[in-house]
Design brief:
Aminopeptidase, 15 strands, Peptidase M20, Peptidase_M20_dimer, hydrolase activity, Amidohydrolase, metal ion binding
Length: about 425
């Protein structure tokens, strides 16, 4: 039985060093070039064979040399276009982004450092487990053409069999030293949209000679709100919002076009699919009513991030045995969305939450916030919990004959 705690404790200094390096040098979605070079160099040092998948990320393989399960472990790499505040909720941060205008304001720096540490421990102790572990470092989780789809396509095209999978997301409202492992839906599905409405510009004194795209948008917005109230069960969770509306610049000039963007979040995929369908139908109808046309500039759909119940139960048991039952934390699902939902739709597994809230150092600001910070003590817990779960999977080899993977082509056409 691998002495997980002993091995993790020995790696804590390097774990923190890695996290701070990634934090100081963030790169935005689909521009994670230096980040990937850094990761590849570490994998090379660890003698972990790896390949870079174009527009996808990095896949590394740790082979124990003994037959058994193959488990995929994943981390995301991209940062956000957010200028970092050097002060968190109460104190100066331990480290701050050196790439002005970008920051790891969601915690992906913690994800990468944990996965590299887990990979190092597994690679150095292959005599203590059997099977294979695939390390997956994903590009562009936040924005752009999603890297996860290309990685999944590569696995499918090369007939790389995966028995189960794992990922974690650090979470601002869970204390350091705690892990939350939930059954079923843990992060919401999402429908992202960016839409242009075309009309005919003119002077504010003669709206009858113009076709105002703003009128069409207002009618669309009202109808969409009515649909939400009529068609979604009150005991189902579905929210949507407009995050961007751009139209005109002067009070007496009717613009020729306008653009709006937003997102919908849900925990029932049928609700999400219906919302997307009705979104297009209502937009088409209201634009036609006002003599406008519309075009989708950007559209992406992600399923609900759903934990496999067998995997979640095994993970809680493994964490309890390794860290003690007090390490498990009760929390609610998170309304944010995750591209790891695609991987969980293909392979049974879990996305665990790793606590990073630490009043002692001032962390606890929400994600995608300039004051966001990581309580680094939580990363140690994350590494130990991940290893406990993965090693338990490799040992127990649960029966997943009931699991029916989603069709990859169907999922990717919405990305």
């Amino acid at each position: 039985m691998m002495n997980i705690k002993k091995y993790v404790e020995a790696e804590v200094p390097r774990l923190i060093e890695l996290r701070r390096h990634f934090h100081e040098y963030p790169e935005p979605s689909q521009q994670e070039f230096k980040t990937m070079e850094f990761i590849e160099n570490i994998l090379k040092e660890l003698q972990i064979p790896n390949i870079r998948v174009p527009r996808g990320g990095i896949l590394g393989t740790i082979d124990s040399g003994k037959p058994g399960f193959t488990v995929l472990m994943r981390a995301d790499m991209d940062a956000l276009p957010i200028k970092e505040d050097p002060v968190n909720l109460s104190k100066p941060k331990i480290c701050v982004s050196k790439n002005d205008g970008y920051s790891h304001a969601c915690g992906h720096d913690g994800h990468m450092s944990m996965l590299l540490t887990e990979g190092k421990i597994l690679a150095e102790h292959t005599d203590e487990w059997e099977g294979k572990v695939i390390l997956m470092f994903e590009e562009a989780e936040e924005f752009g053409e999603r890297g996860g789809g290309h990685l999944l396509q590569y696995l499918a095209d090369h007939a790389i069999h995966i028995d189960a999978c794992f990922s974690t997301h650090v979470r601002w409202d869970i204390p350091v030293g705690k892990l939350a492992i939930l059954d079923g839906g843990v992060m919401s599905g999402a429908f992202f949209f960016r839409t242009k409405i075309n009309g005919k510009g003119g002077h504010g004194s003669r709206p009858d000679l113009s076709v105002n795209p703003i009128d069409a948008f207002l009618a669309f917005s009202t109808a969409l709100q009515s649909f939400r109230m009529r068609a979604v069960s009150p005991d189902h969770c579905l929210t949507y919002s407009f995050g961007c509306i751009q139209a005109g610049h002067e009070p007496n000039i009717i613009p020729s076009d306008m653009m709006f963007a937003g997102s919908c979040r849900f925990f029932n995929d049928a609700d999400g699919q219906l919302f997307r369908e009705k979104f297009h139908q209502i937009l088409k109808n209201e634009c036609a009513n006002f003599g406008c046309t519309s075009e989708m500039i950007e559209e992406q759909y992600f399923t609900v991030t759903t934990n496999d119940i067998t995997c979640a139960k095994l993970a809680r048991e493994a964490v309890s045995a390794s860290l003690g039952p007090e390490a498990l934390y009760q929390t609610e699902p998170w309304m944010a969305s995750e591209t790891f939902a695609l991987t969980l739709a293909r392979y049974p597994g879990i996305l665990a939450f790793t606590g990073i809230m630490d009043p002692e150092i001032g962390s606890g600001a929400n994600h995608h916030n300039a004051k966001f910070d990581i309580g680094e003590k939580g990363l140690t817990t994350g590494v130990e919990g991940a290893l406990a779960y993965v090693l338990s999977l490799l040992k127990e080899k649960p029966d997943f004959s009931y699991f029916h993977p989603a069709d990859l082509a169907t999922m990717l056409k919405f990305m």
